[in-house]
Amino acid sequence: MYREFARVAGAYNLSERQDALLRALVDTGGIREAAVALNIPYTSARNMVAELKTKLGVGTVPMMIGLLLDLTLNDAGGIARPARRHDLFSLSERQFAIARGIGIAKSRREIAVTLKLSDAVLNNELKEIYLILGVRNAGELIGIVADTGLVMPDGNHSSAIAPASGHDLPMHNMTSGSRRIGYSDFGPADATPVLILHSTITSRPPPTRLVAALHAAGFRPIAIDRPGFGDTDPAGSARDPYLLAAHDTAGVAAALGIARLDVVARGSGQAASRLAQLYPALVRRAVLINPTPAIGYTTVDRGPLGAVKRAIGKRPLAVEAMIRLLSAYATPRRLVDGMLRSFRESPPDIHLVRNDPQFAADYLRAVHGFALGHIAGYVAEQSAWGGGYDIAPMPGMAHWRIVQGRHFILHDPEQAMAYWRVRLPDTPIDWIDDAGQMLAYSHPATVVAALSA
Which of 96, 114, 150 is nearest to 13 (CA)? Predict the structure, then answer.
């Protein structure tokens, strides 16, 4: 935990004496006791506490201790992994400090002086923060800071009692054997559970508007990181990457007391199908959004992403090298610029990237795990696809539905649907003429309607 203290101290530009006092406050719980522990006069400790309140943007010692614990401590599941609030929003420590400063109405000049930043650096960081959080100005940022608890942490990320909203991402985990499984339960507990499966190029944070649309329709959204993605430990050398994912899902469902659930799959048609094959009593309805065909059933690559995917698909080392390289250089602005290049053949997706800050914020959060080095799941699933991974046909799934965007860019949509017509011969296909790769983000109402059909 003290290694994390050092990172927080660096983010808030704490002196060595201030850092030592802050640690002592956490250990002892009071100013006088911390002064004794550090063998310094009480008046010196009290003066430093006043300095710490100013730098951390809090008003009391308990709030100060609560903030530090929220940034550094493990969660209730006992997993040896810091559960820092700013990580939920893909902010760096410095960006987090800036956002908090704006949230408590500090001027840019005050923030720059406190963090020892030039005006140019501060302005660049603010642009990144706006992009990550999906806001356009400081006023909207203040609203996000207030709504999400970045000013005063409440220590409670659970949403099993009431629905989560906005930019919230409930952070839960459970253990299965020696493995950690990360999931989010958006509540409410008495609604119809629906599992939102992430794509191979993202982790579990789902589209904000999709969660809102599901809530409005009476659903309880749940998202689970598959093995090697986000907060879920890898599967090892399993040949079928979706096998353990299905077992993980069944384990989380059992822990939450869920006997039946619906599924919304974002590109991961194989994951949804394997779950239903292995646990038929668990899965009720399913909507597959732009499901990926097996590699042998599509010969046309659309756009640079499709070409790269096919070129490296059969070489796991190349897959790993590519995702590491992309993650190393994937700043928020570079990611958006990259999407604009990749989506140039899809007008609906280009419109989304250019005009919808909420989409950019959602997507940046969904790929943040790769920047933290969580790439094993992507490598496993992409390598399986390149090796010809396939699923057995599943006739009789007329209660399922496929929703396919006409402007899907990775593969030819007609070829993709030709594959799924064989694998799911009785499942209706809804073609969405004004949607592309990011259909789950741009057409949440369409997805919910398909699930409810």
Answer: 114
